């Protein structure tokens, strides 16, 4: 969301007023379905012991009657039964207001293309593998499903506060790149991580990135990068905690405070951070 790659200002030719398009499942080629299966097999094999319990439970929703890119008719029946959510196809990134409105109504907009073989490991624009494999399992969890609805409503509300950048960071550091502390260890649940082989290992096991206990205001002040592995990950204690500290908090006073607080540079550590791991930043420094 909210990155400015391929954002149009009105629905393109053939799209509905809410920017959705028919999934047109039959139009995917055999090679595209194979690409899904290859990515699916690789991730499902490496995620046990790394992904959050909620994600691994939700993965079952994606095990459909035929292989390949999920047919949304079948997928949505299962997802609707679990949490009332559905997946809708969109041509690419949609404007913020449209995106928030879909979330507020339990519709997750998914890109309708799949990456090319040379983009196996990193792409900046969400494809159907990221959007569906990465996001749908967590949407099958009742608590996370409610968080995403609250986020959509909060997004619509934020438009009246000029607070979009701050709210986008919350999405980034939870929905896309969140870590969770389970009783049996640290786990990943962010869609940007679980849909990436390299980042699934990096986020948990590499010494480079900071791992910091989640703090709402701190997160909303922290810059992020969209071009490579993250330099910070924020760790929630539980999905209930995430829902409580966001949905049950009125953000209006926070937005007021944030206007006067400086952004936090990407790898900076603050005195009152609760650090689980102080990153060496070796990975980012090596590339610079
Ligand atoms: N409670 C927030 C508000 O008052 C909305 C929100 C909920 C934002 C959940 C993010 C996640 O605006
Ligand atoms: Fe995403």
UniProtKB/TrEMBL annotation:
UniProtKB keywords: Iron, Metal-binding, Monooxygenase, Oxidoreductase, Phenylalanine catabolism
Stored SUPFAM superfamilies: Aromatic aminoacid monoxygenases, catalytic and oligomerization domains
Domain of life: Bacteria
Domain Biopterin-dependent aromatic amino acid hydroxylase family profile: 1-288
Pfam families: Biopterin_H
Single GO MF annotation: phenylalanine 4-monooxygenase activity
Catalyzed chemical reaction(s): (6R)-L-erythro-5,6,7,8-tetrahydrobiopterin + L-phenylalanine + O2 = (4aS,6R)-4a-hydroxy-L-erythro-5,6,7,8-tetrahydrobiopterin + L-tyrosine
EC number: 1.14.16.1
Metabolic or biological pathway: Amino-acid degradation; L-phenylalanine degradation; acetoacetate and fumarate from L-phenylalanine: step 1/6
Required cofactor names: Fe(2+)
UniProt entry tagged with the keyword Iron: yes
Family named by the database record: Belongs to the biopterin-dependent aromatic amino acid hydroxylase family.
Family matches, as PANTHER family: AROMATIC AMINO ACID HYDROXYLASE, PHENYLALANINE-4-HYDROXYLASE
Protein name as annotated: Phenylalanine-4-hydroxylase
Top-level taxonomy: Bacteria, Pseudomonadati, Pseudomonadota, Alphaproteobacteria, Sphingomonadales
Gene encoding the protein: phhA
């Amino acid at each position: 969301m909210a990155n400015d790659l391929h954002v149009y200002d009105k629905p393109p030719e053939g799209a509905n007023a809410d920017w959705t398009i028919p999934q047109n499942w039959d139009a995917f080629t055999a090679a595209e379905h194979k690409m899904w299966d290859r990515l699916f097999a690789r991730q499902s094999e490496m995620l046990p012991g790394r992904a959050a319990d909620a994600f691994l439970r939700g993965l079952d929703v994606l095990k459909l009657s035929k292989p390949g890119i999920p047919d949304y008719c079948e997928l949505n029946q299962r997802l609707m039964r679990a949490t009332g959510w559905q997946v809708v196809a969109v041509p690419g990134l949609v404007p913020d207001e449209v995106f928030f409105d879909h979330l507020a109504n339990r519709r997750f907009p998914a890109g309708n293309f799949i990456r090319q073989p040379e983009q196996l490991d990193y792409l900046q624009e969400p494809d159907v593998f990221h959007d569906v494999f990465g996001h749908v399992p967590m949407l099958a969890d009742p608590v996370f499903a409610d968080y995403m609805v609250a986020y959509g409503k909060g997004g619509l509300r934020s438009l009246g506060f000029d607070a979009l950048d701050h709210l986008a960071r919350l999405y980034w550091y939870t929905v896309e790149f969140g870590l969770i502390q389970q009783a049996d260890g640290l786990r990943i649940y962010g869609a940007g991580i679980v849909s990436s082989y390299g980042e699934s290992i990096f986020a948990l096991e590499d010494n480079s990135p900071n791992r910091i206990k989640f703090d709402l205001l701190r997160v909303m002040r922290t810059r992020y990068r969209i071009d490579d592995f993250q330099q910070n990950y924020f760790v929630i204690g539980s999905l209930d905690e995430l829902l409580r500290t966001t949905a049950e908090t009125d953000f209006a006073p926070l937005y007021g405070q944030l206007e006067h607080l400086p952004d936090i540079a990407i790898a900076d550590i603050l005195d009152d951070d609760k650090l689980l791991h102080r990153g060496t930043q070796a990975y980012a420094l090596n590339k610079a």
